[in-house]
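Annotated sample (chain length 219).
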Amino acid sequence: MSTQNLMAASIPLLSPTDTVARAIALCEDNKLAALPVADDGGYVGTITENSLLEAPDDSVTLADSGLLGFRPAISEFAHPYEAFTTMHDARLTILPVVDNQQRYLGSISRDALVDYFATETAIGSPGGILEIEVAPRSYSLYDIARICENEDVAILGMQMRTTPDGNLHITLKLNRTVVDAVEASFARHNYVVTEVYGRQADKEGLVDNYNLLMNYINM
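Output written by the structure step:
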């Protein structure tokens, strides 16, 4: 899926001839912290509500306000992961989408991206999450997949980042909630297991503790 499939028709579009006052009103009416600006189909920039509120004169046009230098955007063919990164780096809740001629096509909302990751990735699928760390020279995607496969566990999704000390921090979404065996297997292969989430044993333990508490209360 590309970003053009996530564009929201409900995000208003400003023109450089609109006044600062009108832009503020549109932000407030639509509960948006930023709005895109286009001129004759061409993307001009994105203007934030905070910058509008700091403008000394709300009667001037956006073109004369000096507030149109901010131009974050994403290609219509970009992946939602790239859109999410760009939106995060720009500290925005909406992100304009443009074609290769920099013509404005629409905007993606943060809610649309959240919905995408919740429904189109493995985030919402049942299963445990295992976080491991390893030195870059020891990283092997093949080995990680083999370790999981040997324990009859499938990897539904994977994310990776570099830690401040230079190691690779890898988050694995697995198809099982009982992950003790694969956790031990990673440890045997010199991976540092930093966190485990969604253990079935953890849930059972919570139920046992609750039952003990209720028995105590009813004594």
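Annotation: The longest strand covers residues 155-162.
Annotation: DSSP finds eight helices and ten strands in the chain.
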